[in-house]
Amino acid sequence: MTRSSSFGPLARTVAFLVLVAVVVAAFAIAEPRYLTKSNLSAVTRHMSANGLAALGLTFVVVVRRFDLSFPGIACFGAMTVGFLIAAGQPLWLAIGVGLLAGAAIGAVNGWAVGYGGLPDIVTTIATGSIAAGLAFVYSGGRTIFQNFMLSGILDLNDVRILGINLSVYILLAVAAAAHVLLHRSRFGAAFHATGENDVSAWFSGIRTKMATLAAFVICGVTAVMAVVLLLAESGTADTNDGAGFLMPAYAGVFLGAAILGGASIPATLAGTVLITILLDGFSLLGVPYYYGDGVVSTILLLGVLAFDSRLRGAVERLAGFLAPAAPRRAP
């Protein structure tokens, strides 16, 4: 039996569930309020926002690219939605325009990287910074709150169905659609083929540039969807809304991929659950956010090291090289 087969999907799933149980038990012992109904409700709300941002990022990671612009896109989308709500526009129109703005900036990223051949990291840093700067145009940097109470956006945070927040159903619905698109459709196969070998995929007739463009567009759209949930929770729109998506989203995607053996929608959801549980636990314990981010980053690195077969093999080879040689027997 090979090493990979002995550490298959079932073992990875069991390891993930055990890890979640251990983390939850540790926080529950350290802080009894962790398992209260109100805190668990807060965990699900935060998980929904982080999960939506991570779902779109999954498409970009599958095509082997990086997107550092989606926090800036979220900031711009938040202020766009807030500005239209304050102007008295219907909620559906405000959210729709915000989503179009996210898609447009994502399209710029995808066109520049996919068709223009520009480096993804530099390009998305630039567009993300521009988007974050444009967020200040609407109000000069002031928080927008007018008409929020009457717009209906707060219902996205307050409404519960069968005792579960509406935002969780939104996350699951988007995840289901993303799963079908990425794992059950011909267009989804183009994402995977582009990520595995874009040259071979192109010679096979796959529109790799279009797949790259679509991945960035999806990432921009889900970033705005995520920040809409933040607006619903806070009841205001601020230029900094969405700026904190970067670390949880990347940690959710890569930690989930490390645990479950590859980037996928279920892996992203699993990683998001674990990261949100950690961040909420640290917040409840009063740990400063910078310590929480450091611990989450360390756990991300340890998770990749523990579950990535190539890294584990390298560590084992290094340990074997450093181990003292066995004494030779006398002839």
UniProtKB/TrEMBL annotation:
GO terms for molecular function: transmembrane transporter activity. GO terms for cellular component: plasma membrane. Its main location: membrane. The chain crosses the membrane at residues 46-63, 70-87, 93-114, 121-141, 161-182, 210-232, 252-277, 289-307. Signal peptide: none annotated. Keywords: Cell membrane, Membrane, Transmembrane, Transmembrane helix. It comes from the Bacteria. It is a multi-pass membrane protein. It is found in: Cell membrane. InterPro entries: ABC_transp_permease. The keyword Transmembrane helix applies. This is Monosaccharide ABC transporter membrane protein (CUT2 family). It comes from Oharaeibacter diazotrophicus.
